[in-house]
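dude i think i finally got it to work??
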Amino acid sequence: MEWRGRRGSRNIEDRRSSSGAKAGGIGGVGVIAVLLVGYFLGIDVTPLLQQTGPQNSGPVELTAADIAAGEFVSVTLADTEEVWAQLFREQLGREYRPATLVLFKGVTQSPCGGASGATGPFYCPGDRKAYLDTDFFTVMEERLGAKGDFAAAYVVAHEIAHHVQNELGILGQANQLRQQVSQADSNAISVRIELQADCLSGVWARTASQNFGSISRGDIEDAVNAARQIGDDTLQKAAGQRPMPHTFTHGTSEQRARWFITGLQSGQIAACDTFATDKL
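look at this
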């Protein structure tokens, strides 16, 4: 993915220099197991990571890698803004209001609760912001086997896709319904939300490739692989557990990859209606 030297977004809120405690004390496989449990269960496991080891509550010094990651996210966010403005105009006849993306290290706060590397990237409809600790890119590459710049771009695009859902009124309706049903049914709705975001990420990738010429076939393969590596079944296996479909909140690896490809091949927002199909 060619991104260096390209336009970045102004809608970046960089909290990394003043972020809160950085977890310590649990090393290697233990950290990754806790991260995976937190990710597929959708809970904040930061306290587990902070039970042992020192905490740093002072200023955080950004490394060269941190700076490069921030620039990469900014360029990717700018691409999403341009693409979704175009698609909203052409396919929906309406204006797209961009989201803000918050960069942080360790932990920070949001109206949806604490944000941390332990919960993975997420979108909060309460303030229309996406939250991302770029260390998650390292976890993806080194522990989950999701490598390449475009695999990281897929993560950004997926969270912005949740903002697209919010703009369309889908996310609010789905989350309201989740509060009225059983836990198993709530999880099932969550899966449809996540798979739709994967599909919308594919829609974005198609238009971005056409508009900017910065995305290669290999990049697309990286994104599809990333979708597979963060399926609920794959994450539960990586955490040493037997896959339990009733606990799935994001979809299987096969589903996530297939819905991304659906959006990529169609380029149409309407093709991503995961709520109107019996076959996920």
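The chain has a mean pLDDT of 79.
im so relieved honestly
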